[in-house]
C-alpha cells in the first residue's frame, strides 16, 4: 500500500495540454504575421522560443518519461522546429550580422519543411488511432508544411503563403480546444469536452 502511494506521488501528469497550448500560441502569433494583421518576425521569435519551443520540449520529455513515444516524438520534433524557425528569423533580422542576413537562402529552409512534411505524414497516420481533433491538427500541419515548402521554393508564393497562414490558424484553434479539453477532462476525471473517438480503432 505504501509503495503504491509512493508511485502515485512520483507519477507524471499528462503534459498534452501544455504542449498543445504552446503550439496554439505560436501558430496564432505566426499566422497574424502571415495574414498581414501584424508586421515582421522580430516579435514572433520570443513566442517561438518559449511557447513553440520550450513548452513543447518539456511536454515531449514528459511524454517520453511516460513511455509515450508518439506524443514525445511529436512535441520534441515540433518544439525543435520552432526553435530553428526562431534562429532563422533572428538571422534574417540581422541579429547575426549583415552577411548572414544577406546570404540566408530560404530554399534551405524549404528543404527542412519537406522533411517535416514527411514526418508529419507518418504522424497523421498514427493520429488515426488517437482522437479526431488530434488527427485534424496533424492534417492541418500537413497543409502548413505544403504551403511553407512551396512558398520557400517560390511556387505560387502568394497562394501558398496564404495556405500556410490559414493552416496555422486552424492548427491554433484546434490546439486551443484540444488543450482545454485535456485540462478539463483530466481535472474532472471524465469526458467534459469530447475530442472524438479514433477514426481507426484497434481490432479486438
TrEMBL record:
Coiled coil: none
Alphabetized UniProt keyword annotations: Membrane, Transmembrane, Transmembrane helix
Spans through the membrane: 42-62, 69-90, 110-128, 135-156, 162-184
A Pfam entry, by short name: Gpr1_Fun34_YaaH
InterPro entries associated with the record: Gpr1/Fun34/SatP-like, SatP
Major localization listed first in the record, in broad terms: membrane
GO cellular component: membrane
Entry superkingdom: Bacteria
Subcellular location: Membrane
Entry membrane topology: Multi-pass membrane protein
Family: Belongs to the acetate uptake transporter (AceTr) (TC 2.A.96) family.
The protein's name: GPR1/FUN34/yaaH family protein
Organism: Eggerthella lenta
